[in-house]
Specification:
The complex is a heterodimer of chains A (160) and B (399).
Chain A (H helix, E strand, L loop, with lengths): L1 H10 L5 H8 L3 H13 L20 E9 L7 H9 L4 E6 L6 E7 L2 H11 L6 E8 L5 E2 L2 E2 L14
Antiparallel strand pairs in A: 1-3, 1-4, 2-3, 5-6
Helix pairs in contact in A: 2-3
Chain B lengths: L3 H4 L10 H5 L4 H10 L5 E2 L11 H12 L12 H15 L9 E4 L1 H13 L5 E6 L4 H8 L3 E6 L10 H7 L4 E6 L12 H13 L3 E5 L24 E6 L12 E4 L2 H14 L5 H13 L1 H25 L11 E2 L10 H12 L1 E2 L1 E2 L11 E4 L4 H18 L3
Parallel strand pairs in B: 1-10, 3-4, 3-5, 5-6, 6-7
Antiparallel strand pairs in B: 2-8, 7-8, 9-12, 11-12
The chains are: A alpha+beta (160), B alpha/beta (399).
């Protein structure tokens, strides 16, 4: 049952415990209890909105940074990753297989700010061997949701 | 709203055929002419998924068009599709149909229904069907020159068809029993036991069963009973199925019939003269749906189930008693408390609160006193519709 609740919330975090209770046929108190517990255990990490900042005049620059690491003695990738993800500019940090080690998604107010972050902060971290920065030109889909335009299907007013 | 008889067109100028004039205009259709003229309506009327077809299915059809796959297919349908369908029926129901002689790809279940009736009915022969039933069932029988005989079903019995009642309707003219479970408009599902009682009656009297199983995948917490899997029924059933409801493919118009060789040959004869073949593009899409649509279908079913619970509870809370539908995507609440007829209720609800439901009477006399609410619509719309209906019902409820 927790899985059902998680699926509903992952799709729409604004669904209330009352609504969920009706959707899955479970007492509301039980739904609230499970959600509370999931939040406590960080099964649900956080509720957030997916924002299209282009709709308001707020400049946002996104960059994908490929980071190659040199393994340090006594220090694993995890601790290097931590030194990186603690910077609030980083939005996503993944350890990946392939030609580089860390995938870092950074959001800043300008190209300049991101350039500063890479040259002043990221590249100085011990263990960081090489970085390749790719600026995002357009966001088509964000976290499973199409950014521009609606996906709404227009039904014809007919019935058979 | 105008009564059925007044709406019939008796054209003198063009001498429309008697058989066509015998058909009453679909009760749902005339209702939707009214709907089209009002803005801001929340529709619980449309009997189709609110999803677009899953992208992988659409993409496969686009690719086939780009490759120039735009010619006719075999009358029976693409061989790959029939083979995949045979595999599907074997896998899901352990049914063996020969893809070369026992499967026919049709333009939706609607065409398959028409073909089945025309292939088996002689003038004046009777076909037994439950009341209420989907609006096309009796029309197909009439168009084939037959007579539709209806067997009442009731909310108290979960709108299940009783074998004893069916048996009582059998005459020496009875040719077949036409059923469709999970049912439109009630959402009723027949248990395997109850269905077996019906098929035993059919066998005893040498009747064919035409089983419309378009909603087979849309069942909630119960097993779907596939009629040809019942003892001795593979040889006595015309199984009709399709892709519209489970894979959200209503507009593609693609379905199939599975039946013994002789029946498929007869249906194919009509199909080849009237339709040639189902649309090639839709057949490609159907093939993709069978090969890898299982997951997307399951996701939609899971979602329908949630909406179903919200809808049924909401209707009951409003005071419109509603038996729990175990299949399809319809709730069929009783509106008898309001003292209105189904048509009056639906029309007033539409004009006063802008919520569209379908009068139960459109589906037969036993549908009077009920309305059909389709819950294949967004949760937000369901909730808003329930709020409006609550306001409406409290205004009209007779204590």
């Amino acid at each position: 049952m927790l899985n059902d609740i998680l699926k509903i919330l992952e799709n729409d975090a604004s669904t209330t415990p009352k609504q969920i209770a009706e959707m899955i046929g479970m007492p509301q108190a039980e739904v609230s209890r499970l959600i509370k517990q999931a939040l406590k255990e960080r099964t649900i990490i956080k509720y957030k909105a997916i924002v299209n900042w282009d709709r308001v005049e707020a400049e946002h620059v996104w960059a994908l940074i490929e980071v190659k690491l040199t393994p340090q003695k006594d220090v694993g990738f995890d601790s290097i990753a931590e030194r990186i993800y603690r910077f609030p500019q980083t939005r996503t940090v993944y350890l990946v297989s392939g030609t580089y080690d860390l995938f870092v998604l950074v959001v800043g107010k300008s190209n300049h700010e991101i350039a500063d972050f890479v040259s002043q902060k990221l590249s100085h971290i011990e263990g960081v061997k090489e970085t390749v920065t790719q600026f995002v030109l357009k966001r088509y889909k964000e976290d499973g949701e199409v950014v521009e335009g609606t996906e709404e299907v227009k039904r014809q007013p007919v019935i058979l | 709203m105008v009564s059925k008889s007044k709406q019939r067109v008796h054209s003198k100028k063009y001498r429309i055929s008697k058989r066509t004039n015998q058909l009453s205009p679909s009760g749902i259709r005339k209702f939707f002419d009214l709907l089209a003229s009002i803005e801001g309506v929340i529709s619980l009327g449309v009997g189709e998924p609110d999803y677009a077809t899953p992208w992988h299915i659409i993409e496969s059809a686009i690719e086939s068009l780009e490759k120039g796959q735009t010619m006719y297919t075999s009358n029976l349908g693409m061989p790959e599709l029939r083979q995949e369908l045979a595999r599907y029926l074997k896998h899901h129901y352990d049914l063996r149909y020969d893809p070369n002689t026992e499967l026919l790809i049709t333009v939706g279940v609607s065409e398959a229904m028409d073909l089945a009736m025309r292939a088996i009915i002689n003038p004046g022969e009777e076909v037994i069907m439950p009341d209420p039933h989907y609006v096309a069932y009796d029309a197909c029988v009439i168009l084939a020159g037959g007579k539709a005989v209806t067997v009442p079903t009731f909310e108290e019995d979960g709108f299940e068809l009783s074998a004893a009642d069916v048996e009582e309707c059998i005459t020496n003219k009875t040719r077949a029993i036409f059923i469709g479970y999970p049912a439109n408009p009630t959402g009723a599902v027949m248990s395997r036991e109850k269905m077996t009682e019906i098929t035993e009656v059919a066998k005893d009297h040498g009747l064919l069963v035409i089983s419309d199983e378009i909603y087979a995948k849309l069942v909630y917490g119960v097993e779907h009973t596939c009629v040809p899997t019942l003892p001795g029924m593979r040889e006595n059933t015309i199984l009709l199925g399709g892709f519209s409801k489970a894979y959200a493919m209503t507009g593609w118009r693609i379905g199939y019939a599975a039946a013994p060789k002789e029946i498929i040959a007869a249906m194919t004869k009509i199909h080849q003269y009237t339709m040639m073949c189902a649309s090639t593009m839709a057949q490609v899409a159907a093939l993709e749906a069978l090969r890898s649509g299982e997951e997307s279908a399951a996701e939609m079913v899971e979602d329908y189930s949630r909406r179903r619970l919200v809808m049924v509870k909401g209707l009951c809370d409003i005071g419109l008693s509603c038996f729990e539908p175990k299949g399809a995507f319809y709730a069929f609440p009783s509106i008898k408390k309001t003292g209105m007829t189904s048509e009056e209720f639906a029309e007033a609800l539409l004009t006063e609160e802008k919520v569209a439901v379908v009068p139960g009477s459109a589906f037969g006399d036993c549908g009077e006193g009920y309305v059909r609410c389709c819950y294949a619509t967004s949760m937000a719309d369901i909730e808003e519709a329930l709020t409006r209906m609550k306001r409406f019902v409290s205004k009209y409820r007779k204590v």
